[in-house]
Amino acid sequence: MKTISIEKFYGNDLLSKLFEPKPSECCKYGFQHRIIKNEFVEAALQCLCLDDIIISYQEWDLKQAFQLLINHPEELVKLQFEIEGDSKFRSDDLKKIDIPEGHYQFIYIPNAKGHLEYSRSRKVLDLHISLEHLLQFLTSQGLSDKEIREHLLIKHYSFFRSAMKITPQQHALIKELLTHQYQEGFAKEFIRIKALELIYSAFKDNAKTASETKWRVEDRTILLEIKNYLDCHFQQELHLKSISRQFGINEFKLKNAFKDLFQDTVINYVRKQRLKYAHHLLMHSNMEIKEIAFISGFKYAHHFSQVYLQHYERLPSETRQAINR
């Protein structure tokens, strides 16, 4: 499967710049329109960039399957409706976001690095909104700012445990947003309102997701502290008993609450952090593989190679060879 950077695909690697209106582009029914043509797709893109929200709709006629490389320094916050086709995101730190046809997902990634896989033609509506604007809007509609903010801190990357099915009501809102006949300023305000209706529709029936947990607020706060600690100390030798003692939480709760909140065991989470760091060193240093394994927190180079192969589907030596070609 061939790979292309987001900059080469769209002509810009920053979403804030990609969707900025250009005087030369056709503007109809409130949207700016542009055509994208490359060896992978022929696509039509229409977008509206407002102060508090960016609305983007794309239709792709796919020529061949491909991977789109993502290295986005800006915070990525969006509600993505995969109307036709599908989207598969794989981050460099081994997170996955799959959105099949007819589903949507709310995505929150502070620093998006990884790749997207596309194998079908698609129609997709993306609603980009800053986290602060989102929380202000949801709070104004009676939803809990605190619960949603905490939920995003715990489970950032995607809000819902898996992609949600687009409802008939949401399909109707999308159709209204895309096929209205209004012009100029009224068209833009109409699109904005329909986009906010879609955002509200996604959260109003699922806001309880944020607060559905058997763990107390105090427990969740400690678990967030432990996760941050693991992010900084993954290279060290770590034991559940010493971690539970250090943070004043019993070992049973540590194991079970961590897995419940972060969908991973403590041991596997630490292993992923070590692999992520080792992968970075393989890509950006000339250190020997056995030295990388040791520095990343693996005792034995052969065990590191086995675990690396399981996650990246190739050996560390193959990654190093690919860089040097």
Structure overview:
There is one protein chain. By secondary structure, this protein is of the alpha+beta class. The chain is built from 14 helices and 14 strands. The strands form two sheets. Strands 2, 3, 4, 5, 7, 10, 12, 13 and 14 form a nine-stranded antiparallel β-sheet that branches. The protein is globular. The relative contact order is 0.09.
Properties at a glance:
325 residues; 9-stranded antiparallel β-sheet; 14 helices; 5-stranded mixed β-sheet; alpha+beta
Structure at a glance:
The chain has helices at residues 6-10, 15-18, 131-140, 145-154, 168-179, 184-204, 208-211, 217-233, 240-247, 251-262, 266-284, 289-296, 301-312, 316-324; strands spanning 2-5, 26-28, 31-37, 41-49, 53-62, 66-72, 76-84, 87-91, 96-99, 103-109, 112-118, 122-129, 157-158, 164-165. With 325 residues, the protein is an alpha+beta fold. Strands 2, 3, 4, 5, 7, 10, 12, 13 and 14 form a nine-stranded antiparallel sheet that branches.
- Label the structural class: alpha+beta
Helix count equals 14
**Topology pattern, helix = H, strand = E:** EHHEEEEEEEEEEEHHEEHHHHHHHHHH
General form: globular
Low-confidence residue ranges: none
Strand residues, percent: 25-35%
Query: What's the β-strand tally?
Result: 14
- Assembly state here? single chain
Computed CA radius of gyration, to the nearest angstrom: 22 Å
Largest sheet: 9 strands, antiparallel
Q: Name the helicity range.
A: 40-55%
Instruction: Report the span from N to C terminus.
Output: 18 Å
Mean pLDDT across all residues, rounded?
86
